[in-house]
Amino acid sequence: MIGSRVVIGWVMLVGLVVGFPIAALSPEPAHVTPTALALLLLTGICYSAGLNLTYAALAIGKVSVVAPIVATEGALAALIAVVLGDTIGLTAGVMLIVIAVGVVLASLEPARPEVPVGGIDITADALDGPAPPEAGSAGTRLTGQPSDAETRRAAILSVCAALIFGVGLVATGKAAGLVPVAWVAVAARLVGVVAVTIPLIARRRFTITRAALPLVLVAGIGEVFGSMLSAWGSRDSIAITAVLGSQFAAIAAVVAFILFGERLSRVQVVGVVLIVSGVTLLAAATA
After folding, report:
1. DSSP class of residue 184?
2. Would you place residue 86 in the very low, low, confident or very high pLDDT band (cuts 50, 70, 90)?
3. Confidence of residue 137 (pLDDT cuts 50, 70, 90)
4. Rounded to the nearest 5°, which phi and psi values hold at 116?
5. Angle CA(174)–CA(178)–CA(181) in degrees, nearest 5?
6. Residues 162-192 pLDDT 10s
7. Residue 117's Cα: distance from chain center in Å?
8. Which of 42, 65, 116, 225 has the smallest count of CB within 10 Å of its CB?
């Protein structure tokens, strides 16, 4: 409708508007240390940088390559957290591995037929929003299969995105132990507004349509509250929260299957089964 990066800009702005009053009303900690401020800044930078790298990868590579790699963010965050001293039991650790594998499998998309560039939303122009009039001819070209070089580049960008997201998740958990969770969520969106929304406004690309408006409102509100809940859960265990939170890809696949009739491949079904089994056993092990 309006382009992926424009959607990100609106989600960041809506999240900031919704989250700021909550952050303002949250009890202030006795001391806001330089470490807390650095972690808040790192959280926002990782969030924005990870999103931009993900969409850069999608612009040149297949979703079936990019999505499973980026979905490892939770597992990477868990590994980083454990290295930094977050302790988990053996059973919980095994279940986290099972869930992480399930997330990757569930995010694998079935092969799709080639479509005109103008019919999808991950072209270079679509990332920023509607293309200028002089660039309109790009919509008449047909997509081809990505070259080996493009696939490798997309994979490298996806790995970088997953690593950055993983670092950001750990920074979120560490920051949540020092300041209110609303502060953590708002800090990430503030950086996003500065890095994404304001440049789009300056370029006059920050558009919205009547059909897209309710969607970005729901996305922005859900995303900021989801971030607060993630930060809250990270106070107890960054590793467990990171892996469980990375299930958004699997949940999206199941919701698309139920609501929109999209097909789930056998591999995706196996991934969903692994996730459900892993979460059930993890809950029992940590009860």
Report:
1. H
2. confident
3. very low
4. -60, 145
5. 80
6. 899 989 999 998 999 899 999 999 998 999 8
7. 24
8. 116
pLDDT mean over 104-128: 51
- Give me 235's structure tokens: 């106070």
| Max intra-chain CA distance, the chain | 60
Nearest alpha-carbon partner for 62 in 147, 164, 129, 137: 147
Average pLDDT over residues 225-250: 82
Contacts of 230 (CB under 8 A, 6+ apart): 169, 172, 241, 245
- Packing angle, helices 148-176 and 73-83, rounded to 10: 50
Cβ neighbourhood burial of 150 (10 Å; 0-12, 13-18, 19+): middle
Extract the tokens encoding 194: 């500065």
- Interatomic CA distance for residues 157 and 165, integer angstroms: 12
Can you read off the two tokens belonging to residue 14?
């809506």
Q: How far apart are CA 86 and CA 102, in angstroms?
A: 23
Task: Please name the residue ranges forming H helices in 129-209.
Answer: 148-176, 181-192, 198-202
Residue-wise burial string across 152-190, b where 16 or more C-beta atoms lie within 10 A, e elsewhere: ebbeebbbbbbbbbbbbbbbbbbbbebbbbbbbbbbbbb
- Contact status, residue 142 vs residue 116, Cβ threshold 8 Å: yes
Q: Would the pLDDT of 133 be above 50?
A: no
Residue 203 is which amino acid? R
Burial class (CB in 10 A: 0-12, 13-18, 19+), 207: middle
Res 131: pLDDT: 46
Q: Are 200 and 2 in contact (CB under 8 A)?
A: no
Residue matched to tokens 């591999």: 267
